[in-house]
């Protein structure tokens, strides 16, 4: 796979960076985060107009039909700007699931709406007792007439309060099958409790009490739930790796600028060799994370499921380790100021920390990597 930006990809990256630098400023982002908003409709519509939300949606359904490499370009720029809006859960993960496993009616109804920004769809697969393993879901789906009745709890639903619908996992009663359902937000019996996360985004817990959905709410067949969910999770991991690389890149630039202007003993901090070495170490870690982000994107085109899991887990673990190192070094190199809320350094560090927890932490992916290698 060639990761040299094409002319179209470079234009997209340039326009995104220009939009973030001029309109999606850090001050505006922080104001929204502190106001408890992780979705600005003006920003969301602008991202849709730029083609970000429909980038990988098939052209037949209002998207651009681009491949994973173009998604890396977008996510890298979004990471640089710490963009709050739910691009990854809706425009990447949900779109990938529906494109691969959705029925013709589901694709027709939801994919154009996702691409245009009219509708937001997110995943609801975590539960208080499942950790990152969706196969242990306890939410139930019981057949009733021509539909299903859903009961249970879903936790830490990414951008759950902003979503118009959820791709929700539930165990089919009387079987060991985990099915995936497309559940509208306004379904009777569905409760949503929203709360902020440490990085300024929002999540929600869902409670399902006798939520009735028609049979056509199923994504694929009842036995296809885990496979369909896996498509979304794999695309999400690749997106997070690219986002993290972009965030590290910007954080290094911020730190280099600070060291170049802050004076000590009559000269800039950047002139001290020990600090230069630490900046070099940060750059090495960022380049390593970016290289593994390329690996993660390449994995999405890998036909062998075992190789795909191995590549994605390796990239996710590398992202977490590099993000922790770069974030800690940036805070320390800013001295006492790095510990305050006044600077943007802390916001980048918090986001990099949360990227480790999303879609499987380091422990989970290390175990999964080991299982693949042992097999």
Automatic annotation (TrEMBL):
UniProt key word Membrane: no
Principal EC category: oxidoreductase
Protein's UniProt name: Acyl-CoA dehydrogenase,short-chain specific
Keyword set includes Oxidoreductase: yes
MF terms in GO: acyl-CoA dehydrogenase activity; flavin adenine dinucleotide binding
InterPro entries reported in the protein's UniProt record: Acyl-CoA_Oxase/DH_mid-dom, Acyl-CoA_Oxase/DH_mid-dom_sf, AcylCo_DH-like_C, AcylCo_DH/oxidase_C, AcylCoA_DH/ox_N, AcylCoA_DH/ox_N_sf, AcylCoA_DH/oxidase_NM_dom_sf
EC number, as in UniProt: 1.3.99.-
Residue ranges occupied by any Acyl-CoA dehydrogenase/oxidase N-terminal domain in the UniProt entry: 6-118
Membrane spanning stretches: none
Entry superkingdom: Bacteria
Family note: Belongs to the acyl-CoA dehydrogenase family.
Needed co-factor(s): FAD
Domain named Acyl-CoA oxidase/dehydrogenase middle: residues: 127-207
PANTHER family: ACYL-COA DEHYDROGENASE (PTHR43884), ACYL-COA DEHYDROGENASE FADE28 (PTHR43884:SF20)
Matching Pfam families: Acyl-CoA_dh_1 (PF00441), Acyl-CoA_dh_M (PF02770), Acyl-CoA_dh_N (PF02771)
Residue ranges occupied by any Acyl-CoA dehydrogenase/oxidase C-terminal domain in the UniProt entry: 224-371
Keywords: FAD, Flavoprotein, Oxidoreductase
């Amino acid at each position: 796979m060639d990761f040299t930006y094409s002319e179209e990809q470079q234009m997209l990256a340039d326009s995104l960076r220009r939009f973030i630098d001029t309109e999606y400023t850090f001050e505006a982002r922080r104001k929204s985060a502190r106001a408890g908003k992780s979705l600005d409709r003006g920003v969301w519509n602008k991202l849709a107009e730029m083609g970000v939300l429909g980038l990988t949606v098939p052209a037949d359904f209002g998207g651009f039909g681009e491949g994973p490499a173009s998604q890396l370009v977008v996510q890298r720029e979004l990471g640089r700007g710490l963009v709050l809006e739910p691009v990854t859960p809706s425009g990447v993960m949900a779109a990938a699931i529906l494109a691969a496993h959705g029925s013709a009616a589901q694709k027709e109804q939801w994919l154009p709406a996702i691409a245009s920004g009219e509708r937001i769809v997110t995943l609801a697969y975590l539960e208080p007792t499942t950790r990152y393993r969706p196969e242990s879901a306890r939410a139930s789906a019981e057949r009733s007439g021509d539909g299903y009745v859903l009961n249970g709890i879903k936790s830490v639903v990414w951008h759950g309060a902003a979503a118009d619908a959820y791709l929700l996992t539930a165990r089919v009663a009387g079987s060991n099958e985990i099915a995936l359902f497309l559940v509208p937000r306004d379904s009777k019996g569905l409760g949503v409790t929203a709360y902020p996360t440490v990085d300024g985004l929002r999540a929600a817990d869902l409670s399902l009490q006798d939520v009735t959905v028609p049979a056509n709410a199923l994504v694929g067949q009842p036995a296809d739930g885990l496979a369909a969910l896996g498509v979304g999770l794999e695309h999400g991991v690749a997106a997070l790796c690219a986002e993290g690389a972009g965030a590290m890149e910007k954080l290094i630039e911020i730190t280099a600028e600070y060291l170049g202007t802050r004076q000590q003993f009559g000269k800039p901090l950047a002139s001290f060799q020990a600090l230069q070495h630490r900046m070099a170490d940060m750059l090495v870690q960022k380049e390593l994370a970016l290289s593994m982000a390329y690996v993660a994107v390449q994995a999405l085109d890998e036909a062998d499921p075992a190789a795909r899991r191995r590549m994605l887990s390796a990239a996710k673990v590398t992202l977490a380790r590099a993000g922790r190192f770069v974030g800690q070094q940036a805070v320390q190199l800013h001295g006492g100021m790095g510990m305050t809320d006044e600077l943007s350094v802390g916001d980048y560090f918090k986001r990099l920390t949360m990227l480790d927890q999303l879609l499987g932490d380091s422990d989970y992916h290390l175990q999964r990597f080991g299982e693949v290698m042992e097999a």
